[in-house]
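A quick aside before the break. I want you to see a complete sequence-to-structure record at least once, exactly as it would be stored in a machine-readable document. Don't worry about memorizing anything.
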Amino acid sequence: EYGINHSGNKTNWVRQSGTNVFNNPTRDIEGLWFMVSTDAGGSTPGDYALLTGTNAASTATTLASAQATAFTQAFKKPPFSSTGGPGSPGNIFATGTPTWVDVEVKKIGSVVTMSINKTRILQYTNTTPFTAGNIMLGYADPYESIGTVGGGAVYFSNVRVVNLSSTVVQPNITGIQLINGGTQVQIDFTGGASDSFSLVSSAAVNGAYGPTVANITSTGPGAFRAVAAVEGSMRFYQIKRN
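That is the input. The structure line, written in tokens, reads:
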């Protein structure tokens, strides 16, 4: 499970079996959070669901849902090996051939979209009070039975938060020169006043750009300077917005 617009002070979870299925005063519900079943089989409220809520003593509210049967061509079995049918991007526990997926939660205006491997799974026009905040990453088993496969887990890797606002100021290099007897390169550039930056470089203009150690300072509102040691007789530089 994962979500957006969270305070970061609460833990979202639901329980769908056992006593007091939803009524547990220690549970908090907030934000917009997505649940993805790894052993799809017509789960309630859905193999894929977008949930929210404001009351810990009541059930989470389902904002959007879908069943795995709608995505059998997107998530085939194999390569996925979930214990459920096709349409679910999951792997059996301890598989020797795990299959990764690329997940995107995108918010443009009030429209929130969740995609997996560029396939749109759920979309919702947000009318909840949760319109900004932190991201949430987690894992939960809503059923109290003990699995016989050996365990369960979720792995998150290469998590990024990207600002899609049209007001983002892209960095722009305005000057470059050698200093200190040619031992260092000085790069002046502009960018968002509250943004942070890093310097990347390559020996070839179309090569693989990698991190370059640089001292980056502000020289004025929206103006910056990066100073780094010279590497080789020819080097190409880019300013990366973090």
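Two observations worth writing down. Residues 20-26 have pLDDT under 50 and may be disordered. Residues 193 and 222 are 4 Å apart (CA to CA). We'll return to this after the break.
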